[in-house]
Specification:
alpha/beta, six-stranded mixed beta sheet, binds adenosine-5'-triphosphate, binds magnesium ion
């Protein structure tokens, strides 16, 4: 589903050049749930933004659903993002004056009118994320956990090939974070939703099939649930 090869990203501030990604190679299969962990500043959000087509790499290829993102022009990338990618932010980023339902439907307005099929998708998503009964409530009246449920439903409304999430539980306390992680896992297991999630929290990363450890712009290690040393590795991490 995702193929990243020899990816690099440099930022310029005046004459000063910062190499943030230094050759990342990654393959994420359809239906996989992958977590990316690593120290602050190691390039996790930069990688996620490149996967989301928000920015272009300095070199290397990003292929999502067999389409090469880095060869698209800006307009093509915008359309690709809208149709094939869903993004969940740490701070939810809902439109505060719109209702739950309107926020979830929002990505659909950009492209076309909402038809019966879309309405069904929205209703199903509201039920799936546990917001039935408050669909007419204004987003600014919701708790953090509820807002993130709306944001997840919004990110899934276009049936994206990949759901990208940058610290989706970073602003939530442990119990609510767990609810959100279980929700992501449910979409992954039941609908084979491919998910790439950045997190600082080893507890959150434990929900994924594979954990990618990032350091200083490169992948340092990949640890899979099915690896023999997985349990030992996780225990050490938490110690
Ligand atoms: N637009 C930009 N211009 C210049 N430098 C940038 C830009 N975006 C990111 N950087 C730099 O790239 C490096 C990696 O940033 P990034 O946000 O990807 O890290 P991160 O791993 O997500 O960190 P955190 O865990 O704190 O969120 C940082 O040194 C940051 O200052
Ligand atoms: Mg980040």
């Amino acid at each position: 589903m995702i193929r990243v090869s020899n990816l690099t990203k440099e930022f310029f501030q005046g004459q000063e050049k910062t190499k943030v990604l230094k050759g990342v190679n990654l393959h994420v299969k359809e239906g996989e749930f992958v977590a990316i962990m690593g120290p602050s500043g190691s390039g996790k959000s930069t990688l996620l933004q490149l996967l989301d087509g928000l920015d272009l790499p300095t070199s290397g290829d990003i292929q999502i659903n067999q389409q090469l993102l880095n060869n698209m022009n800006e307009k093509e990338r915008t359309i690709f993002r809208r149709r094939h990618l869903g993004f969940v932010f740490q701070n939810y980023q809902l439109l505060p004056t719109l209702t739950v339902e309107e926020n979830i439907a929002f990505p659909l307005y950009a492209d076309r009118k909402i038809n019966k099929e879309h309405e069904k998708t929205i209703t199903n998503l509201i039920t799936a994320v546990g917001l039935k009964g408050i669909e007419k409530k204004s987003a600014n009246l919701l708790s953090g956990g509820q807002q993130q449920r709306v944001a997840i439903a919004r990110a899934l409304v276009n049936h994206p090939s990949v759901l990208l999430a940058d610290e989706p539980t970073g602003n939530l306390d442990r119990a609510i974070a767990e609810e959100i992680l279980r929700l992501l896992l449910m979409f992954n297991r039941k609908q084979h939703q491919t998910i790439v999630m950045v997190t600082h929290d080893i507890f959150a990363a434990g929900f994924a099939d594979r954990i990618i450890l990032f350091r200083d712009g490169v992948i340092e290690k990949i640890i899979a649930r099915k690896d023999e040393d997985y349990a030992e590795y996780m225990a050490n991490f938490m110690a």
